């Protein structure tokens, strides 16, 4: 049974994870087994629990203990639940809590790229995508539009940053993901994938090209905000693909482009 603790001391070290630790401190690269993340809102917390993530503590408004948080708490056994009115929680954390509920959880062990790509037909590769909001939005599109796995380079943003988790609506716990080695084009090729780089080049194929739909195993490669994919990355991909646009617009935000690409290249059975 959960142990409910009313907050009276803002400086309590048990609250550091919610109030004072940075995202990088939560990751705890020096001791990855004790790295943590923050899940926000009941639906996100539920999806994290369903994925096997282990909770450390909760922070919520008092009414949620016997209200919308009860089902979640019943799943978590003897766990600390810190409570206070919303205005106090907002003061403590420095931001307004979505649905008045947070949960600190241990970071799960990550699978390898080979493991998440096993039996996959469509995967996404994110090269140095830096904005957590974009990461979250891409994961949400990936979950909705039949992408089997998301593969990331080390220089990109962490999918378990609080904002990325929140924007994704917890789909970061539903779509398998892994980090790629430096020579990832060769790795994907060894697993039978062809690669399609989304880039603004005159020699690009239209994303509606029927040849792309006929590919059995395809990795859709998206680049960082602003600069896009590196020239060397494009050179190592099998195809360069462009989304046709109108009104003189030359590009979309990477999250918006991912939704178009995933719909056309993964979910669609016939060309646009």
Please summarize what this structure is.
By secondary structure, the protein is an alpha/beta fold. The protein has helices at residues 16-19, 23-27, 42-50, 70-74, 86-93, 113-117, 132-144, 162-168, 184-190, 210-213, 231-236, 254-267; strands at residues 3-6, 36-40, 55-60, 80-83, 101-106, 122-126, 149-152, 177-179, 194-198, 205-206, 218-222, 239-242. A seven-stranded parallel β-sheet has the order 8-7-6-11-9-12-10, with helices on both faces. It has a five-stranded mixed β-sheet with strand order 1-4-3-5-2.
What would your notes on this structure say?
- A seven-stranded parallel sheet has the order 8-7-6-11-9-12-10, sandwiched between helices. It has a five-stranded mixed sheet with strand order 1-4-3-5-2.
- It is of the alpha/beta class and 272 residues long.
- The chain has helices spanning 16-19, 23-27, 42-50, 70-74, 86-93, 113-117, 132-144, 162-168, 184-190, 210-213, 231-236, 254-267; strands spanning 3-6, 36-40, 55-60, 80-83, 101-106, 122-126, 149-152, 177-179, 194-198, 205-206, 218-222, 239-242.
- The longest helix is centred in the last third of the chain and has 14 residues, at 254-267.
- Strand 6 (122-126), helix 7 (132-144) and strand 7 (149-152) form a beta-alpha-beta unit.
